[in-house]
Structures are given as structure tokens and as C-alpha cells.
Amino acid sequence: MGSFTLDLINGQVDDPALFGSMLGGGCDGTLAQYRAFPAHGLVAVPEKYSFEEAATLPCAPVTAYNALFGGLAPIKPGAWVVLQGTGGVSVIGAQMVVAAGGNAIVTSSSDEKLQKVKDHINNSHNHGGAGRLYTINYKKHPDWDKEVLRLTKNGRGADKVLEIGGPGTLEKSFACLRQGGEVDE
After folding, report:
1. What pLDDT digit, counting tens, does each position of 44-84 carry?
2. Can you give the pTM of this predicted structure?
């Protein structure tokens, strides 16, 4: 399967020239019957994954994984992580947090979507960790940052917020962080 940034061999996307090799961004994506790739831009499909399952891996899961486990402060068991919305990055991120023994807090304006996230994570085949999932409907709790502080016991705050960049979220993301926590995007 193709990696998301074909010419990124290792490290960070810190060279502007790399943006030209991002699938569906700087170069053609993968919605095609046939597509040529440079050999260095391909990785093996994980065992037991269908082609459909493998096709979901290069973008949302890699983004979530890097935000959660890369960088200066990878999450550890017991960590509190806020994931905004019910899109692919947040849902797979919540699944990773719970599987790693952390506490995922997913926000959404829809109770129906939050229930789907709960069902997905509870029925997931890789839910091996001792983590927990919490949800916050930000329409019912417009000050969702205060709800995060309440959930994290004694106002401790989240270790990490996966900032998706919706209107008015950045200020609340910082407000619900613990001392030394980080916001990733």
C-alpha cells in the first residue's frame, strides 16, 4: 500500500518539497484502477487485513498515531486525551488511546455519533487495553473544556488534545490541558 507522503523516508515533513508527494494533495491520489508508485513509497499490507481495511491506514490512523505516540510526549497508560469530533482521525485516535490503556474523551454535537463511537470501540477487535472512553456533547455542554476538567478528577486536565481546528476550539483546548500537557493537530 502507498504511504501518505511518498517521498518521506523517515523523520518529519519539514521540507516543503515533500508536500508535492502527499497522496491526493501534491500528487494524484489512489482513486484509480491502476497507479504507479516509487518503491520507497510503498509498505507491506498488515497480515489479515483486507485491501479495504489496508486502504484506510495511510491517512487518518497515521495522523492519529503520530499525534498520540510521536513527538516529545507520547501517551502512556492512564493518560487523558481529548479527541475532537467523530471523524476518522478522532475515532481511530480514541481506539488507539483506549487500546493503549488511556482515557479517551471524544467530543461531538451529536449523541447519535457519540453512540456510534462507543459501539465501534466497544466492539473493536483490538480493544486490548484497560482504557476507558468518555464522551461529551458540546451542544449540551458548550463549556466542554470545563467538562473535561471535571472528568479528569480534581480539575487535573487532559494530557493531550487532538485539535481538529473547528471554530472556537483552540482556546478551549488549552483551557482543558493539565500543566505541561500538549495540543497536537
Report:
1. 998 998 988 888 888 888 889 889 998 778 999 999 999 99
2. 0.82
Question: What amino acid is encoded at 78 in this protein?
Answer: G
pLDDT digits (tens, 9 = 90+) for 101-124: 999 999 999 999 999 999 988 877
Task: Please give, one letter per residue, the 3-state secondary structure of the chain.
Answer: CECCECCCCCCCCCCHHHHHHEECCCECCCCCCCCCCCHHHECCCCCCCCHHHHHCCCCHHHHHHHHHHCCCCCCCCCCEEEEECCCHHHHHHHHHHHHCCCEEEEEECCHHHHHHHHHHHHCCCCCCCCCEEEEEECCCCCCHHHHHHHHCCCCCCEEEEECCCCCCHHHHHHHCEEEEEEEEC
DSSP class of residue 78 equals: T
